[in-house]
Amino acid sequence: MRWILGLLVAFVSVQLVRAADVDALYRALEQSDTATVERFVTDHYRDAGISVNDTLTWENQAFDQIVNWYNQYTEVIMLSELPKPAEVAPYWDNWSAVLTQGRWDWRAFFADETEAALLANFNQFLLAAHEYGHALTYRYDPEHEARYDYAINCREYLADRLAAALLEEVAALDARIAALQRRYRALIDEINSQIAPQYRYDVPTLAALEADCRVLAVEQPTEDSMTPYASAFFVRHALLQAADLPSLAELYAIHLLPYWQARQYPASGRAGAVTTGAALAVGGAVAESVLTYEQRHIVFAPDGSPFVIDAGSDPEAEPPRVRFSYGPVGSPVEAVIPPRAVEGVVLNEFRFLIFSAAASLGPDRFVALSGGGGLGNMPILLFDVARHDGIWQLNVIDLEPDRAIAEAISFVGLARDSSGVLSAYLLDPGTADSESTWRRILLDPKTLKPVGTSSLATPDLGYPVAVGPSGETFFFDNFRILAADPDGRVSTFAGAGLQGLKDNPDPLLAEFAISGSAIHPRPDGGMDVLDYDQAKASYVLRHIAPAQ
Fold it and tell me: The pTM is what?
């Protein structure tokens, strides 16, 4: 009996907390309090048992901006501010003009100014829940776009389903929110009815939408083409809000968690505690250049010290031009190769020369690798930049002179072991009957010319970043560090495969956001990591101890 009573007390306490939160939400809608609405959305998803991204940040734009979005690369949600009372009229004027070319008379729809203001802010609340739905979907299921042939409606529907479930749970806790939800459904039906027929979507059934989310052929919108995109949003929410949806916890268990679980590999058991140092003084933006493409790589030298490599290219020039800057982290980055033409480099009609990977070989030498980029149409060129007698010189090595083979390479990478020996990796994409295979090209330590090759038959694991003391290749993939033994066996060295788990000492519950050759395996079995912390907008040095 005492156990049952304890559960009841806990349940009542949770309900009181949730009711208090909903009351704060309603006050925020009355007072145009954008920050409280954003905090409520985050907290409610977390309360449903979903692990949320603690490094995700909200940024706000002017109230009259209709396009809100989530950027999965910067982990930022851009949301328009909730309009203040004096801004409500221009807010709805703008929605009417952009979506219906002024045909929707919003003043005739709303009962009074108070309702117009509340529903404007309620609209932004639902859009906030929708954008966070995107964040959760990318967090747990980063491949979801490809699974649906990159159909825009599918990407949007997955976020809508989470947002609608959140709204249903909140409405069940507060009659005022439930009343706003009912009026909101009438609102979106009204706006959609005023959209020109050629831009308005027919309403499918929810069953049809669930069976194939591509049923609505939605195009990626711009500020000038929002009407059909918005119509599809209205249609999806009309269907979802009329349905008896599963709880957020159930949606998480059915539609998010399994995709994360399917990406997991066995733990290697070789990593110990993770510690995070201070932010690194990397310096300003990529060095200014007149060239078209600029990339910055933060990498480790063989002795474990961090360096900055800035690489630029102008493939439109004939012949193409490149330039490089280099220096240790914390010091000025020196322009070592000013913009110059690279004779003998011939690009095809796509005109790409992008430095996908770079590596440091010490204070007097570094390399940058161009090719692949997922396009499979670039020459595989290693740019060797070295200082001799105080003068920096550039040498270009073609790692795949057979152009027919080079054009089949989809991704490239560089990985160096702790002794400084460098390898280039080329991903042969395979065929319908064969798996993709990483080809490792061992490079001569002095000339950097190929001296041997081997194959690594592994799944597509992101990109290689280092070679370990036992000959294993470390890959960075979905915010984790994987280890692939020479026989192709893959294990998780560190990382949960989820955005936003910084500063966690457990190596399998930590998140990493590295690029290039930004890890340094130590001879003791530990690892140093140059990691980018989005919330701090800075690189940090993290240490992974060897397992005890």
Answer: 0.80
